[in-house]
Amino acid sequence: MVDFTLTDEQQALREMAHDFAEKEIRPVAWEYDKDGTWPQEIVEKAWELGLMNTHIPEEYGGAGASYFDGALIEEELSWGCSGIQTSLGCNGLATAPVVYAASEELKKEYLGRLTEAPLLASFCLTEPEAGSDVASMRTTAVKQGDKYVINGSKCFITNGGYANWYTVYAKTDKDAGHRGISAFIVPRDAGVVVDKKEDKLGQRASNTATISFNDVEIPAENLIGEENKGFKIAMATLDRTRPGVASMAVGIARAAMEFAVNYSKERVQFGVPIAMHQGIQFMIADMASEIEAARLLAWKSAVMLDNGERNTLVSSFAKRFAADTAMKVATDAVQVYGGYGFIKEYPVEKLFRDAKIMQLYEGTSQIQRLVIARETLVPRRIEEPAAA
Ligand code: COS
Fold it and tell me: How confident is the model at residue 381 (pLDDT cuts 50, 70, 90)?
């Protein structure tokens, strides 16, 4: 049976997240955007309320929430401010490979750190020369006795400047392409260097950093799963996190549509509120229907995970469609505001800037299409890496 009705618990969770977004995030969102202010006090409050680390299993102190519950939370918090939600949600990306494939000892130590205190972790995959083409990464991890020595540089690292530990992908066999990549946990105090904080177009309250590893030594036990299985761990991670990113895109789009709807009822041109003009009505109609479709795809991709099904295809459907919808809706919201939409004093200008990253991070819209095309043209069976 397919039933889109939320249970009382899901409804309550959604309301709690919405309340937090409305009272704690919205009032400061535009101000924080202006200067790129780090939202430390919001991180602490969200952590206290259990709105972070939702997917960490209960045995490690997390909420053990379903992916569907996560999607509900992510849409609401992103409706408040997607930049702040990127900061709050990043632990989910960094911990997904750990929950998926790390040893019991690593899970206890590093997931425990995040559930015992409002600390942050980062996911380090992208490099200056390896964006969409993950397999071309240059960071290396060389085994020396009971240690790995890591050298290299990672860029566009969310929360990179504030993380307590990092999930780092590095080449353990330089000649083996994607089959020579491994995943590690690198504690910040092992010697991670934060090189710079990026000054971004949108989502300015989130921290995006370039970090480097210069002969950083970590214990060999910090390997996540098996050596040279890191690429598949990264891909499986993105399958698990793209539904949440899709929900975030829905949150941005919903916020933009709400502003556009309210404005169109107030703004009078040609003697009537502009909502009376068909040109505006059609834009609103497209916004409403595409947001609904994006949400349903995000929900489906999350529910598949909760049911233990491989969701690669639907996850890319959701991420691609929701991200493109956020950008289109935010663009049309600026259009509804006319010239005012271009002015910082009005809210949709920020949403327009924030929406752009949804088509870029966690795989561009083109990479999602590439995944969709491959999965559609040549569907393949993918063996899951064994959990350590
Ligand atoms: N789950 C598990 N394994 C997967 C997988 C998935 N979703 N997708 C691919 N694989 C496996 C393949 O089965 C293949 O396995 P074999 O070694 O057994 O052949 C292997 O991984 C390589 O797959 P593929 O040939 O498709 O790799 P490509 O180098 O062509 O890259 C893309 C595939 C482009 C999809 C990948 O590099 C990607 O997702 N890039 C975007 C990265 C990204 O999102 N960056 C954002 C950073 S996080 S903010």
Answer: confident
Burial of 228 (0-12, 13-18, 19+ CB in 10 A): middle
Q: Quick count: other Cβ atoms within 10 Å of Cβ 104?
A: 11
Residue 386 has pLDDT above 70, yes or no: no
Q: Region 163-172: what's the mean pLDDT?
A: 98
Q: Is the pLDDT of residue 384 over 70?
A: no
Q: Is the pLDDT of residue 385 over 60?
A: no
One DSSP character per residue, 188-242 reads: GGGT-EEEEE---SS-TTS-EEEEEEEEEEEEGGGEESSTT-HHHHHHHHHHHHH
Helix orientation angle between 8-20 and 40-49, rounded to the nearest 10 degrees: 160
Q: Active site includes 362?
A: yes
Cβ contacts of 125 within 8 Å, gap of 6 or more: 134, 137, 154, 169, 234
- CB of 300 within 6 A of ligand 1: the answer is no
Q: Which atom of ligand 1 is nearest to the CA of 236?
A: 1
For residue 224, how many C-alpha atoms fall within 13 Å in the half-sphere facing its CB?
Answer: 32
Model-level pTM?
0.97
- Most informative mutation of 134, 173, 200, 242 for ligand 1 (most atoms within 8 A of CB): 134
Contact 85, 249 (CB under 8 A): no
What's the CA gap between 114 and 165, in Å, rounded? 10
In the set 221, 362, 375, 384, the catalytic residue is 362
